[in-house]
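Researcher: Please translate sequence to structure tokens.
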Amino acid sequence: MKKKLLLTLGVFILIIHQVSYSNEVCQKAFNSFEAGNYQEAIKYYDKCIEEHPDWLPAYYYRGYSNFYLGNYQVSLQDIELAINLVPYGEKETLNAFNYLKGQANQYLGNYKEAINAYSMAIEFNSADLASYYNRGLLKNHLNNYQGAVSDFTYIIDLNSDIPSAYIGRAWSYANLEEYDKSLLDINKSLGLEENGSAYHLRGLVYYFIGKYEEALVDYSKAIELNPEDISYYFDRGLLRNHLGDYILAISDFSKVIEFHSDFTGGYINRGQSYAGIGEYEKSILDFNKALELEESIDAYVWRGDTKRLMGEYERAIFDFTKAISIEPDYAFAYYRRGWCRKFLGDFDNSLLDYNKAIELDPHYAYTYMARGQLKKEIFGLEEEAADDFEMAILLDSVIRKGGNCKPYALFYLGKVQEAISYTEKIIEEFPTNGNYYDAACLYSLMNMKNDAVKSLDKSIEKGYSNFIHMINDPDLDNIKNTDVFLQLLRKHNVKVKIPNPAR
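Model: Translation complete:
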């Protein structure tokens, strides 16, 4: 089967060019090309060009043959020669040659040159929708989203029944954060043709606007329609990680690894999922595998975070420091290293790390929360700590399915009842194991021991299994040696050694 030039539209652009074959060799060349025997066609066209160096079709079809074989640079050389031989005024031929030139440059990654070639093709034929489409795709790739919208809109105005044009414009709108327009285009595309890419894109848009359940449904539909596209499994895995559905996320990332065993991202994200269910050894193995494939900053950071959860703070600091040495502007690495340094009593360096993390990323609420705690508990800087807690509250203004730090900030500001009320509101909206665990930590800090244990019990019932982290978590120190806590461990058959309370 011939490789199609326009893969995304599934359209083969025909060249309308009457050819007079002057000899048997040239006829054999064309016959070989038509039969898909491109290597053989190239040999015959080489001979044709030796005999007829000004014969335009030979350069074109030899270039086309090399294109089909993936020899894009060689193909470009013939296309340029062919363009120079086109008689003045043959717009249709020049349109076709420039389209092929755009395709070859596109495959080579020469995107600006490809855009120029498509623009030239359009100049010779303003109804060339394929060139508009590919130029729109490349504008999206180069972040020229408004320009891409213009190209896809032109196509839609001329032919409103091309599903891929709506998808192209939907990508543009999504990147412009015009999500309502993006959804309208995706739905229009799906009305014309049911395809995996449309469901996948709609899933992404739903994710961006916080409609996670709808996103999961669409990712799953995309997988049903195209079960071999690993990007669909990968994005569904990311969403499941975000929602705390770690076991299902592991399944998705394992599928990604099954298809592409050398994809670093599959191991890193599966490692995070394993850490989420407390299977730290498997988590570390995945991060190690990722680092065998490439020196990944994310692998160092998340391996360090897993070691942090295991209570191996010095080893965690080593990984965070390694990540920072590779990428000095990685804010999260400073934040986590600061957390570990505080736990080890290295308070001055902990503060330096928190300061650097906030300098690099002033929008992450948890860093302000952690720095506020350090300033309040260790340095006695009450006013500065209060400023940090207020900033954490400002940044953490939306209730999420996991990772809400606003109740802690309210507690440290002395607004205990507000903290309790907000915690209850979080659990009412998202009764997840993570939110029950956070509630347990907060109630422990408030010395509400029975409430803390009840919340922890509920968290474990809902699937919380990070028991090593739980035992090492200083927020739970007020309940760790109580009878009700020990009874809870026995109830759930949790066998861990309880350390001395953290300083």
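Researcher: Any highlights?
Model: The first helix runs from residue 24 to 34.
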